[in-house]
């Protein structure tokens, strides 16, 4: 008797009902270029010298050598924060509003319900979202997670376990990235306007060849003043490729994707998705 291993089913492409539109296959990538956008707020990385609350900050941290902290800007309602990587975990500290901030108070926060099972927790990436939210990329003994941290509520909303973003093989070392930076990037951020952004991440991956992976499915979330906690927009399925580049023009999302699972039958696609219902007018 022979037993055959069943092929893992392909993950379909699904557009969320809130979008109210379908993902449209396009014949080509548009010639129009998006207008450059600067974020309303930024988060900066610093080296931490000493141990909080007696620590200070130093510019130009060296990853892998320095203890890294990500510092947020103050808002009208919330103080600036320092998210500090300690040897075993991540601490969140409120800072003073002085020109040279000092550590004021440590916050108690749980990043994920499963956090009790994690060892060697660290914060690798951070992005500032609308309405005093932060997108956190956490690494730990069980893998990698994304979560949305609400500064005012001091609470985290998990987005789930993630895998590194796929990189088209010939672009692996482009954009000035090292190999480690390329294969460990867990999300990409696209600014629509200073207060609105889209986030792309993968939750699974397929090994294509040595050090080359095909990530699927991919998810795109929108973070807006109306949806600061994030709203899922799209699940991009296995057969529709990985996102090679993306942009928005007049609140329409454009995706260029590639399916390189079979090197002899490589496929390229262009898609558009009207996001007016999610992003607003």
Structure description:
It is built from two helices and 21 strands. The strands form five sheets. Strands 4-3-5-6-7-8 form a six-stranded antiparallel β-sheet, with no helix packed on it. It has a five-stranded antiparallel β-sheet with strand order 1-18-17-14-13, with no helix packed on it. Strands 2-21-20-19 form a four-stranded antiparallel β-sheet, with no helix packed on it. It is mostly beta strands and 281 residues long. It folds into two domains: 1-31 and 164-281, no CATH class; 41-161, no CATH class. The longest helix is centred in the middle third of the chain and has 5 residues, at 179-183. Helix content is 3%, strand content 44%. The radius of gyration is 20 Å and the shape is globular. The chain has helices at residues 179-183, 276-279; strands spanning 14-15, 24-26, 43-49, 56-58, 68-72, 81-85, 90-95, 103-107, 122-129, 133-140, 143-150, 155-161, 188-193, 196-202, 205-209, 212-215, 218-223, 231-236, 242-249, 252-259, 267-274.
The total of beta strands comes to 21
Helix and strand sequence: EEEEEEEEEEEEHEEEEEEEEEH
Helix content: under 10%
Mean of residue pLDDT values: 87
* Unreliable sequence segments: 1-7, 169-183
Count every helix, treating DSSP H or I runs of 4 or more residues as helices: 2
Task: State the major sheet.
Answer: 6 strands, antiparallel
Radius of gyration, taken over Cα atoms and rounded to an integer in Å: 20 Å
Shape: globular
């Amino acid at each position: 008797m022979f037993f055959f291993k069943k092929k893992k089913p392909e993950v379909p492409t699904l557009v969320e009902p809130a979008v109210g539109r379908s993902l449209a296959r396009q014949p080509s990538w548009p010639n129009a270029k998006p207008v450059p956008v600067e974020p309303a707020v930024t988060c900066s990385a610093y080296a931490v010298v000493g141990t909080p609350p007696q620590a200070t900050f130093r510019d130009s941290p060296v990853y892998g050598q320095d203890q890294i902290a990500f510092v947020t800007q103050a808002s009208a309602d919330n103080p600036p924060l320092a998210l500090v990587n300690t040897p075993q975990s991540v601490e969140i500290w409120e800072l003073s509003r002085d020109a040279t901030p000092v550590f004021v108070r440590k916050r108690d926060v749980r990043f994920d319900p499963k956090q009790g099972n994690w060892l060697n927790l660290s914060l690798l990436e951070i992005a500032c979202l609308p309405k005093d939210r932060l997108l956190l990329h956490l690494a730990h003994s069980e893998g990698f997670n994304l979560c949305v941290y609400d500064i005012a509520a001091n609470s985290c909303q998990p987005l789930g376990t993630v895998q590194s973003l796929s990189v088209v093989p010939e672009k692996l070392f482009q954009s000035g990235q090292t190999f480690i930076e390329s294969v460990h990037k867990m999300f990409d951020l696209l600014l629509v306007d200073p207060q609105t952004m889209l986030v792309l991440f993968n939750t699974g991956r397929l090994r294509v060849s040595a050090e080359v992976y095909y990530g699927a499915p991919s998810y795109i979330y929108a973070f807006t003043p109306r949806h600061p906690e994030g709203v899922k927009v799209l699940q991009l399925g296995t057969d529709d490729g990985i996102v090679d580049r993306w942009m928005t023009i007049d609140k329409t999302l454009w995706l260029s994707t590639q399916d390189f699972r079979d090197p002899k039958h490589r496929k390229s696609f262009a898609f558009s998705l009207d996001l007016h219902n999610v992003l607003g007018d």
